[in-house]
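Dear Dr. H.,

I hope your travels went smoothly. While you were away I took the liberty of generating a structure for the chain from your last submission, since the lab meeting agenda had it listed for discussion. I wanted you to have the full record in hand beforehand rather than looking at slides cold. The sequence, exactly as received, is reproduced here:
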Amino acid sequence: QVQLVESGGGLVQPGGSLRLSCAASGTIFSIYSMGWYRQAPGEQRELVARITSAGSTNYADSVKGRFTISRDSAKNTVYLQMNSLKPEDTAVYYCNAIFAPIVSRLETSWGQGTQVTVSS
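The corresponding predicted structure, in token form, is as follows:
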């Protein structure tokens, strides 16, 4: 199984910035896409941003213009640069990867999550 290790969460004031990172390791033939989801207390998990191996990106409307997803394909690492953070961005952020452990199979994996808290 692929392992996803997240880092970069923490406490930040409104208007501040954080950068999350997620590194995938293990037996991976290729990674189809990596992305970030978040879940606030009492809310369902929602997609924040996703990037494919071809570089295509998707963003939640609530974060467009503020968050940027990027990746380092050589390191199987994805980043989420979060700017102009708002209290409503407070959530646990989870990394996700869709990957091929072998040539003909797709699997998905989740990180354990990292807490992002936006508060004065």
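Two observations you may find useful: The two ends are 39 Å apart (CA to CA). DSSP finds no helices and eleven strands in the chain.

With kind regards,
E. W.
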